[in-house]
Every structure is written in C-alpha cells, then in structure tokens.
C-alpha cells in the first residue's frame, strides 16, 4: 500500500523506545522475532497489507456501513463481529454491556493489554450516493465507527497469526454506545479493564491527510459535563409575593452567577465553558410557581478544571437558591445528558504509540495535535488505566473523505484501514514483549 511507509528497523528499535531510558538486553527479544530476524512493525505491516486482508477489512466496513445501528442496538454489528471471530478461532465474551463483544488473544495470563473500537452509528440521513450507502432511513455511520470495528477485526486477524508468540493477553474491546456516552462506562462495569495495564483507542479524522496520525500527550479532548437543577420555593398569587418563596428569582440569579465562574475564577488562557441552555418554570402570568428548572453544560480540557467546574456549579446554584430562601437539587449524570471526563493521554503510553505510529506511517507523518473541545467516551477508560487516544488521518480528495464527523456526507478513505490495524496490533504485541521480557513498562 502506497501510504504505508515501510520501515526496516529491528525489534531493538521498538523495545528501546518503550524501555525509555533503560538499555537493551537480550532478554528483550521474543523468540518469534529472533526466528524471523525482522522487526515487529515490519512483520505486522506486511500482514496488514496482504491483499486478502485489506479486501476483507473493506468488505466488513461496507457491510456495517450499509446496516447502521444506534447506541445499544448494535445486534447485527455484534453478530457480524462474533461470526468473524469464530472464523478466526478467537475466543470472546458476549454479551458485554448488552451488545458488546470482548475477544481475547494470547496466553490468557498477564500482562493484559486492551484495544478498543466503538460500533454505534448516528441518527443522521446519509446524503452521499454510493454503492454501499446506508440502507436504513435516518441512520448512518457518520463517525467512522464502521471503520474502527473493521480495523480492530484486522488487528485480531494479525494477532491471531502471532498468538503462539504472545506471552500475555490482548483484550479486543468492541464497545457499544459511544455516541451517547454510556458504552465505555457499562463495559468497565462488566470488567473489561480487569488486570489491563494499558489501552489504545483510534479515531479516523478528516482534518488530517490519509497516511498521517495525530495525537498529543496529556490533556487532548475536553470533558463534557451537563447538569440539571431543580430549584424549589413556595408558590403563591403573583399579587402577594410576600406569601411566596420565589424559585424564578433564585433560578435567575443562579444563571447570572454561573456566568461568573469562567469569567472571574478561571485562567483566560485555559479554555472552559459553562452554558445554561434550558430554563423552565411556571405556566401563568399571575402565579409564582413552586419550582424552576435550569439545565446546562460545562466543558474543560483538564481533569482538575473539569471537576472544579462541576463543584462550583453545585455551590453557586445551591448558594444562590439559599440566598433567596429556596432549596436546590442538582443532577450531574442523568438520562440523556451524560458526563464525560476530559480525554487525557498517559505520557509514556503516548510516547510508545508515537514511536509505533512512526514505524507504521513513516517518520514525518505523525503530528502533534492541538487540544480541542470535542469529547469521547474513551476518556472513561483513561480514568482507570494508562492509555492513549490517536487520530488517524483519512482526508483524501479522491476518496471524497473531506467532510467532518457527524456530517451527512461524511466518509473515510478505506486505504487507511491497514494503518489502523497495524498500529493496534503492533502496540499490543510490543506492550506485551516489553512488559514481560525487558523492563517494566512504567
Ligand atoms: Zn461521533
Ligand atoms: Zn466517533
């Protein structure tokens, strides 16, 4: 494949990167790699680019694209994944988080490393006319989760071929419901991260050209929080305000005071947002109601600021309600308005992934991405274990893949599929080799 740049580097390169400051020892070598006298990345890239494997990944992506399923409804997608894992002889657990699948490859013993793909589509009508257009009205894979699933199956196929040389275990996490922010939480509750030492997540992204990858150490994507506050007072005739405890007034001053958190309490160079988006209360011009409701969202790039904002929102609403003799109940993680923490890449795992990506796409094709205000439920995994999230460039004018995610014309460059499969597989294999044979990864 043209956009994959072949790198002739012995395993020493991969291992020495990951061992950080520690020197190379013979014990770093995996017998498989000694036998093959070639680098891990080289071998994996070759497997990822076998014409039959590329064709198979494209077919899977197209099948999933034709039949998009929304959050927690991914029954056909899940069935397709299980069918392919069965054909490969990969064991799996199912159902996990309703429609999720967790495959395992390797010895079944530690160390454990996890690779994650999301499976759900969006409630969008696909506008692009092509052979494999969505067959379901009003639903579409407009966030490339069809491609993410195909790439993780590609990695499974590669790792299954190397399974006898894996002295550890790879968990392949096929996760439902990324778009509503619930999938990762449910998967974690069902134990998919138990004993896992590191995790990798990839997302196709149209802002970067095909054949490039982009990421950054530390804070990467914003945390997305939401709140719903019910402010309770005492209703009365509006002509006798002295008989009331007015929740409308308490809600109004709460909204004004919430705007002071970002403008007066935070560093202007450190992006944060608090917005009130719904205000409800009362149903008549001459009745002071019993209660008023305000709903809003907050965003921050760092975990510290995200949780600080959440704490201050609660304090401000409760404080302002108390000033006006009302009480307030605040819900932060209710139905339809999930909270996602910021996506924070572990610096060491990021470095390791960065080196692997350079081997796969070539030195000079990896970019330091700026932080941005979108959110990802992969962040929930990163709160539990060290890991890294990576953007995989898929912008190619010829393929028409220049529309952003969540756009009805969105599509991807399918020639990028082997890159994602190779990065996934190389990361998992090298993590296990380093952990077991050389030095401690962390
Ligand atoms: Zn999305
Ligand atoms: Zn997405």
UniProtKB/TrEMBL annotation:
Keywords, alphabetical: Hydrolase, Manganese, Metal-binding, Signal
Single annotated GO MF: metal ion binding
Pfam families to which the protein is assigned, alphabetical: M20_dimer, Peptidase_M20
Coiled-coil ranges from the UniProt annotation: none
Entry annotated with the keyword Metal-binding: yes
SUPFAM superfamilies reported for this sequence: Bacterial exopeptidase dimerisation domain, Zn-dependent exopeptidases
CC annotations in GO: endoplasmic reticulum
Domain Peptidase M20 dimerisation: 223-319
UniProt xrefs under CDD domains: M20_IAA_Hyd (cd08017)
Cofactor(s) the record lists: Mn(2+)
N-terminal signal peptide: 1-18
Positions that bind Mn(2+): 143, 145, 179, 203, 406
Keyword match Aminoacyl-tRNA synthetase: no
GO biological process: auxin metabolic process
Cofactor note: The Mn(2+) ion enhances activity.
Similarity remark: Belongs to the peptidase M20 family.
Name listed for the protein in its UniProt record: Peptidase M20 dimerisation domain-containing protein
């Amino acid at each position: 494949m043209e956009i994959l740049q072949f790198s002739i580097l012995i395993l020493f390169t991969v291992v020495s990167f990951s061992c950080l400051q520690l020197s190379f020892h013979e014990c770093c070598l995996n017998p498989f790699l000694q036998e093959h006298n070639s680098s891990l990345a080289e071998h994996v890239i070759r497997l990822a680019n076998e014409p039959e494997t590329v064709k198979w990944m494209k077919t899977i992506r197209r099948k999933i694209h034709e039949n998009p399923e929304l959050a927690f409804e991914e029954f056909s997608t899940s069935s397709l994944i299980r069918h392919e894992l069965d054909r490969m002889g990969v064991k799996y657990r199912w159902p996990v988080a309703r429609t999720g699948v967790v495959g395992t490859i390797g010895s079944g013993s530690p160390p454990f490393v996890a690779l994650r793909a999301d499976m759900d589509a969006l409630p969008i009508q696909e506008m692009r006319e092509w052979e494999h257009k969505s067959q379901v009205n009003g639903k579409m894979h407009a966030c490339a989760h069809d491609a993410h699933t195909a790439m993780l199956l590609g990695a499974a196929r590669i790792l299954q071929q190397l399974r006898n040389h894996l002295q550890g275990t790879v968990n392949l996490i096929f996760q439902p419901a990324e778009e509503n922010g619930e999938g990762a939480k449910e998967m974690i509750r069902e134990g998919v991260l138990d004993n896992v030492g590191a995790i990798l997540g990839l997302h196709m992204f149209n802002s970067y050209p095909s054949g490039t990858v982009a990421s950054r150490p530390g804070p990467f994507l914003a945390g997305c929080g939401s709140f719903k506050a019910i402010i309770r007072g005492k209703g009365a005739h509006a002509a006798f305000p002295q008989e009331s405890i007015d929740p409308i007034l308490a809600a109004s001053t709460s909204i004004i005071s919430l705007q002071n958190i970002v403008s007066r309490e935070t560093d202007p160079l450190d992006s944060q947002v608090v917005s009130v988006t719904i205000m409800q209360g009362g149903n008549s011009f001459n009745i002071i109601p019993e209660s008023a409701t305000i709903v809003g969202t907050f965003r921050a790039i760092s975990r510290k600021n995200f949780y600080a904002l959440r704490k201050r929102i609660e304090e401000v609403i409760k404080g302002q309600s108390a000033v006006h003799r009302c009480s307030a109940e605040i819900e932060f993680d209710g139905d339809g308005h999930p909270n996602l923490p910021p996506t924070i890449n572990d610096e060491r795992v990021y470095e390791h992934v960065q080196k692997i990506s350079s081997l796969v796409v070539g030195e000079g094709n990896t970019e330091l991405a700026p932080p941005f205000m979108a959110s990802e439920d992969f962040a929930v995994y990163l709160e539990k274990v060290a890991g890294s999230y990576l953007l995989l460039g898929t912008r190619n004018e010829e393929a028409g893949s220049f529309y952003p995610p969540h756009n009805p014309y969105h599509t991807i460059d399918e020639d990028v599929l082997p890159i994602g499969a190779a990065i996934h597989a190389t990361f998992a294999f090298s993590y296990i080799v380093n952990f077991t044979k050389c030095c401690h990864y962390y």
